Amino acid sequence: MMMNRNQKVGLLGIIILLFQTNTFGQKNEFGLMIGGSNYQGDLAYNLVPKETNLAGGIFTRYNLNKYWSWRNALQYGKVTASDENFEDRRTRNLSFQSHIWELNSVFEFNYLPFGSHVLTKDFSTFVFGGLAAFRFNPRTEYKGNIIELRPLRTEGQNRKDMYSTIQIAVPFGGGVKYSYKKNWVFAFEVGWRKTFTDYIDDVSTTYPNRDEQISRSGLLSAELSDRSWELQEIGEPLSQKGDWRGDPNLKDWYIFSLITVAYRFTPINCWPSYIKSYK
Q1: Which 8-state DSSP code applies to residue 224?
Q2: Tens of pLDDT, residues 38-70
Q3: Residue 170 in contact with residue 107, Cβ under 8 Å?
Q4: Among residues 172, 137, 135, which one has the least CA distance to residue 152?
Q5: Burial grade of 143 (CB within 10 A; 0-12, 13-18, 19 or more)
Q6: Interatomic CA distance for residues 235 and 142, integer angstroms
Q7: What topology does CATH give the domain 20-264?
Q8: Mean pLDDT value across the chain
Q9: Alpha helix segments (H runs only) across the chain
Q10: Where are the domains of the chain?
Q11: What's the half-sphere exposure (Cβ side, CA atoms, 13 Å) at 222?
């Protein structure tokens, strides 16, 4: 049966609509992340593998084209460090732990044309970069208890000098990704966070005067400010007011190493079933 002009226009419209729906669906992904988190700063000038902690998150990804994607994620990681990991830092005897919650938005660039389109690849390396906001709260273990450090003002801060536990970071990194059939994307990535705070570990500047610290913030603050006294061979605090406790010129970093699994939303192909825009 011959189609008239209106029928041809209608069929063409259906084909275009199916193509556009398929394209829209394959641009959107939802995924999960799991892996490890690490810290680098005043209490760890090198990465310490045994201080790797569990990390994870959820994300959405919008594929702008076969090279560029836009990803938004909520991520969690725990970071820890201790002076006992470094022989030249042992007498300082500081340690900390902190949960980090991060919201980030990054752009990914695929080195190969990646996706489920015709003439795209199932495998590619990629890099990413963007902006993040994160929250942290340094704590330490003392006499079997977990103590929050910021309220203790361990470096003699006054109210104006108190650091904020909500900060901005610049996430960047890279990895590899693999597309399985149409709907699944697996990846491994390592991402560094350049922060603008030196207090993720509650260590940055100099020691306060111990007597003044006790008078202003209490004995617990003074005891956790300089913990060298806990070492049996020392028995008393070593620091004097103004001695370096940390290096304020070196900001803290944290790192996520993650395996990600994403589901790519692809619509069910309706009639005519032979109309396919992708492999």
Answers
A1: H
A2: 999 999 999 999 999 999 999 999 999 999 999
A3: no
A4: 137
A5: exposed
A6: 16
A7: Porin (2.40.160)
A8: 88
A9: 5-25, 210-217, 219-225
A10: 20-264
A11: 17
